[in-house]
Amino acid sequence: MAGITRSLRLKGQTATSLRAFKKRNEDPRRKVAVLREQPMGQLKIIEGFEAEAVRTVEAAKGRVDNELGFGKTLGNIGEARPCENLTCARPDIDSRTAEMVAEGRWMPAGYKGGFGELSIFKWAK
Length: 125
Hints:
single chain, mainly alpha
């Protein structure tokens, strides 16, 4: 400000008026800057609350989905046939198993070829 008054050689009331004008101009600018920052701070706080609310809702959604899954599972269990009513797809399995045990055979033919050796006694030494 002092540079302008010197370069233009302003004196007296003109310089005083120019300083008053500058003050009237800068005061509202400062107030506007402060007011512009206030909503941004409030918006950041609101965004933080919103993010926390979204996390909470997603966690609750996961728990609700689990509960619904449990309810569906319990419904399936309730609708299942009792064990007494279950039947074997091949009734000859019981007689074939009894026959193999009587002969001392504990593995069905071809089992090791399809699944490999699964005996724990083979590796235990």
